[in-house]
Amino acid sequence: IDPLGRAQLLEFLKKEFSAENLSFWEACEELRYGEQARITEIVDSIYQQFLAPGATRWVNIDSKTMERTLEGIKTPHRYVMDDAQMHIYMLMKKDSYPRFLKSDLYKNLLTEAIIPPETKKQRVFPFMRKQRHSSPSP
């Protein structure tokens, strides 16, 4: 994922009061791909920050997903947050991210992006480019 794009998405989510969703997703990625020796510590941190009653960055997941996750963290492992992470991902995909794509923040990001010269032509799909030299048949 593009770091600048992710930073802009986080800024947008802060304005929408839902930045905890992206932070939760990132914490779950750290759990999945992080050090094996830190799994229990990371699971506990995720629970305390995002799932515990009164958590400062509480995420809203459905009761069945919460139940499965709370049962799973009794024996912490790398994939214990997968259901909760997917739930939050789908919330962002269906709700927050489409709004971000329509936001001025995103439009400004696109305006400021450096566009490589070969993509400036008005072709919609890269595979529609005309070949300059015909290649021999295999």
From TrEMBL:
GO terms for cellular component: cytoplasm; neuron projection; plasma membrane. Transmembrane segments: none annotated. SUPFAM superfamilies: Regulator of G-protein signaling, RGS. Keywords: Signal transduction inhibitor. Pfam families: RGS. The keyword Transcription does not apply. InterPro entries: RGS, RGS6/7/9/11, RGS_sf, RGS_subdomain_2. Residues 1-110 form the RGS domain. GO terms for molecular function: GTPase activator activity. One of its GO terms (biological process) is negative regulation of signal transduction. It comes from the Eukaryota. This is RGS11 protein. It comes from Bucco capensis.
